[in-house]
Every structure is written in C-alpha cells, then in structure tokens.
UniProtKB/TrEMBL annotation:
<keyword id="KW-0732">Signal</keyword>
<dbReference type="Pfam" id="PF16499">
    <property type="entry name" value="Melibiase_2"/>
</dbReference>
<dbReference type="GO" id="GO:0004557">
    <property type="term" value="F:alpha-galactosidase activity"/>
</dbReference>
<dbReference type="InterPro" id="IPR002241">
    <property type="entry name" value="Glyco_hydro_27"/>
</dbReference>
<dbReference type="InterPro" id="IPR013785">
    <property type="entry name" value="Aldolase_TIM"/>
</dbReference>
<feature type="domain" description="Alpha galactosidase C-terminal">
    <location>
        <begin position="608"/>
        <end position="686"/>
    </location>
</feature>
<feature type="compositionally biased region" description="Basic residues">
    <location>
        <begin position="1"/>
        <end position="18"/>
    </location>
</feature>
<dbReference type="Pfam" id="PF17801">
    <property type="entry name" value="Melibiase_C"/>
</dbReference>
<dbReference type="GO" id="GO:0005975">
    <property type="term" value="P:carbohydrate metabolic process"/>
</dbReference>
<dbReference type="InterPro" id="IPR013780">
    <property type="entry name" value="Glyco_hydro_b"/>
</dbReference>
<keyword id="KW-1015">Disulfide bond</keyword>
<feature type="region of interest" description="Disordered">
    <location>
        <begin position="1"/>
        <end position="23"/>
    </location>
</feature>
<comment type="similarity">
    <text>Belongs to the glycosyl hydrolase 27 family.</text>
</comment>
<keyword id="KW-0378">Hydrolase</keyword>
<protein>
    <recommendedName>
        <fullName>Alpha-galactosidase</fullName>
        <ecNumber>3.2.1.22</ecNumber>
    </recommendedName>
</protein>
<dbReference type="InterPro" id="IPR017853">
    <property type="entry name" value="GH"/>
</dbReference>
<dbReference type="InterPro" id="IPR041233">
    <property type="entry name" value="Melibiase_C"/>
</dbReference>
Amino acid sequence: MSGARHITHNRQRHHTRGTHTATTPLPLHHCSPSLSALLLLCSAAMGMGAFSLPPPPPWRRHLLCSALLFLLLWRTSEGNEELAALPPRGWNSYDSFSWIVDENAYLQNAQIMAEKLLPYGYQYAVIDFLWYRKYVDGAYTDSYGFDNIDEWGRPFPDLQRFPSSKADRGFSQIASKVHQMGLKFGIHLMKGISKQAVDANTPILDIKTGKPYIEDGRQWTARDIGLTHRTCAWMQKGFMSVNTDIGAGRAFLRSLYRQYADWGVDFVKVDCIFGTDYSPKEIITISELLQELDRPIILSLSPGTEVTPALAENISEHVNMYRVTGDDWDSWKDVSSHFDVSSSFATAKKIGATGLRGRSWPDLDMLPFGWLTDPSVNQGPHRKCNLTDDEQKTQMALWSMAKSPLMYGGDLRNLDKSTLSIITNPTLMKINHYSQNNMEFRYIYGERTSSEEHPSQFSSPCPVHLTKNNIMVFGLTACSDEKANGWYMFSQDGNPDHVCRNYEIQNDKNISFCLGKTKPLAWDAIIMDKEYEAKFHLAVKEIDDTCLDASASQRRTASDARFPMFSRCRWHAKQMWELNEKGNLVSTYSRLCATVESRQQEVGTAGARSWVATGSKGEIYLAFFNLDSKSRKISAKISDLGKVLGRKFVRKNLCSCTEVWSGKDFGLVKEEISGVVNPHGSMVFEIKC
C-alpha cells in the first residue's frame, strides 16, 4: 500500500486531535511572494532592510511592523487552519438535479443558502457529478463520448450549462461569486482518469514545466497510466483508476488537483473510490497531493457501500469525511438502515478522529428533503420528498446525534418553512457540532400504545421482528476483519475447482456457500505476469457465462440487500479473485475480502433505538427513535444514564428535561424519562441533572 510513501513539503503540519504542534519558521525564500513582501517591508520599517529610506520614528516603526506581522500571521494561520474541525455542512445538487444542474440554478440555490442556511453553519455549495458532460440527446450517466476534456485529459465544465466557464474552461468565476456570498465552493469528481482521455491517449501535464511529462527519456500519456481492467464498476464507460505507483500517474493527479485549487475549489467529493470500489493507493495519493497545495481543500469520499470501521481504519486519517453507506434516498427503509452502521462507527471511536489536516467524520449521506428528482435521471426537481415529517425529523436527529456531515439535497428555491425548521433546529445544530460522548444508548424500555391482541414489549438493543426469514448475505470487509476468514478450496473428482465457506450450522451439519473456480476470460490473450498468476473467476456452474462481482454494476442505495452479485463473465478486476493462505477470498478490484453469513431477513421491523450525547455545559442529550409502524411509549432510567455517562453528568436522580421537537418543558423528572413516540418518529431530550 502506498501509505508508506512520504512527500517532503515546504510546510510540515503535525496534528493531534484538536491540537497543533509548533513548526520551525520558514526561510524567507520559502514564503509566497506576498508573504515575502510583508517580511521585507517589516524589515525595512525596523531599519533592517536594503531600502534607502529615512527611518520613521520608533512608534511608527512599531505600529507599521505590528500591522504587517498581523497580516503575515493571519495568512499563515489560514493555511494552517484545522480542516473539518466540525462536521461540514452544506448543499449538494445531486438529490434535486441529478447531473443536469446548470449555472443559473446552482447560483440561485447558493444565494438562498447564503441567506437562510449560512447562519446555521451550512457553508459548502457543491456541484455534483458530470458537470463536464454535455447535456444533449444521448447523454446519460454512463454514456460515452459526451465529456469535455482538455488537451491534457482533464475534464472542464459543460460550456452550455456553465457559460461563465468559457473564459477559462474552469469554475473560477462561479467560485468567486460563491466566495463573495460568504460560502465555500465544492465539486464532485470521479476517481482516476476518463476512458475518453485514455482512448484519445492525451499527454500528461507536468505542472513544474508546463509541458508534457517526461520520465526515463520518454513522454508519458494517458494509456500509460489508465488501468483499463479497473474501470468504475457502475460507470464503466466513464472512468478508471490510474497507476499511482509510477510518476506519470501521480503527475496526472497532481495536475488535476492543482487546477481545481487554481479555480478556487474548497471541497472535493471523490466518487467510486471507497466501499466496494475501494482504491486505497489512489485515496492516499490524492490526500498527499492536497497537502502540497497552499489552498486547504476538504476531501470527501463516496459512496460507502459495505464500509466497516475496519475498512475505515486505514483511510480516515487521510480524508475529512467518508460515506459509510450506499446512497440515501427519501424512503424509510433507507433511513432505518443507518442505525446499525452509525452505531458501529461510534463504538469504534471514528467520530471526529484524526483526518487530513484536521479531523474526519463518518458521513451518513445527504438529507433528501424538500423538492427532489430521482436517482441518475436526466431530470431536475419535480416531486416532493416521500418521507413524512416524523421520518425527516428522525433522520435529522440521528444524523445530528451521530455527528454526521449535514448536506441538504433539496432544491432550495422551493424550501418550505417546515423543512427549514427541521434542518436548522438550534439544539440539533448544537448537538451536531459541539456534543461529545456520542453513542447508541442501549438501556431503553417500552411497549406499543395502540390496542393489540398481544401487546409487545421490548428491551433495547433487541428490536422485535414481526416476521423472520433466514437469508444468506454476501459482503466485503477489510481482510484484517475476522469475519473474512474461513474460505477453503474444495476438491471434486480430484480437481480443486470449488471455493467454499461454511456460514451456518443446521442439525449439527455445516451449511456451505460454494462457487466454481474457473480461469478468467482472455487469460491466454494477454501477457501474464505474477500479479495475475493466482487469480480466478468464481462462477455459478448451472448458469453459463455468469461470474461473481465484487462491486455492483449500478449504484446501490443504503438499504439494498447484500445478496451475491453476478453478471456476464469478462476480463475485469471486479470479477477476479484469489484465495490466500490465511483463508481470505480477496477481490483484485478493491483488495477487500469476502464474507458470507446467515442473517434474519426483517419484514415489518418493529422496536426502538436510542442515542445519548453530552454538551459542553454538562447537559445530556437523549434521543428516542421508534422504528415501528405504530406508536410506542419509550422510557429510560436516569440511573442508567449515570451508568453510561458517569457521575460528572448525573449527580442525582432528579433532572430538568425539555423535548427539542415540541419544545415541551417536562419540568423536574424523577427516576425515569419517557414519552410516546410516533411511528417512525423521534423525541430528543435536553436534560440537566
């Protein structure tokens, strides 16, 4: 893994969580021209420069130098600011415009965001994917030949949708307007290099010379760096990984991110690079290249299908936010799927961990409220959010308690008062940014309040399931995860032609999941080296030409079931596997390892969940979530809060309590806090003991 590589920078930054260590002052010639000029002027003012000027009076020299040094320190601190010290907030165009947003619609949304959301910390205005694709007949999310690329193979904006880009084939003018609004400018990127650039074999820019990149006596091009067997699984006609082990691959990425910094970009969301599309070398390379820049840029990863804390362990320190689920859309199934994953990242203490030039945050994805479009369509906002008010409040409460980044997705030109009040609730804003000790709270009790023949009661964290069916779930995780062990070769008729794993025991017998091991297509048509000697396809013997995929051919939502994925067999890294000596089935595409387990399929899930956090002034935040389709009374004992949080926060079993959504003051409560929670609803309490 390329994490062992280091780049020497002019500015070395050393971060611990929430602190900075001093660095050696830079020599004058290492400063930017403006900073060098300030130092020279200050030296002249103190009588130390080479200027042939009469020295001013001492008091004036002191005043002038103090002012100049203030500007110097301000500029330096701006470059050294802790990135993502708090979970980022903003607006992203994807949920309302898919890929067809234009300059006018974007700037209108940005202006409303500046007026209505910036006071609540929403500051990043992000243009989502395919801003470089021409919006013409035949163009869609995985079409080919419609992207604008420059002579160096780099994308530039669609000039019809973004007319101000005609001036520089970039976003400089839009970024300037956004900055004048007091906002920060962000864009979506795909990993690596476009297939168009590779097919055109464009030269690679060396930003140090402004000429084509030359190494080992020859000029390098896009075909030298594009990994054609590692195209994005769900956009195979669009982009592929680049070889970051060679100088030319790094030079291409360096030219990309230098250009984005020159445009005034403050935030990049890099897609098809994490989760089942895991590309750790490229993630770390991008992180290193961003550290070379004087401009601080937030690094966000997307999507997060199959992400586990074990997978994030090697990546979180290199980024500022990273998705931990598939795409979240406006369905209750998607919302409710986030409870388990958010709890696991809190338990792993990944919330606010060390990140790129600052901190990193597990990202539960956008808030799909208000006026929306549909996934991957050529259509702008045309429908209302399908979530009820209670479901939207539940999502907002969970995202806030888990300290997820908050990226609103609806068209702000149709922002109604109810939605605005949900996404700007002052207490939730405070919880999302400033709370601590955020975790799932597992000591809640309750029962349904509606009349039933057999009223159900529960004790968290074991929700009640109305029906249960066992299903086999296939997944991917970091190879260090114990769940990835246990694969073995099974011989039949003397041939080791099956790869199997036991995943369940029934009647004292192991139940196994097995697939046929076959030679990859085109094996004899390419020059093989040691990298491919141990690779194979895994096929379903009864189905011709069908092989196991390590990543889906279409983007998956947060709630999509994790069944094994199969598609037509072909030469692609997502269908290549190897079995190592540790009993891991390793994907060539992502270097993640396969898991298989028996899981209960939940139909009509009922029950409840709860989260707890603490505030800076000793207050406690307690959230109840009702996952059931009927109302439930949910209760928690104050003594249990004390067990979890300690006597620092709970000194006695008598507390004052206010519910956040309703504003109801419960006054002094003794022994227990309880409330009737609506179906799919939430209650959030601010408690002072």
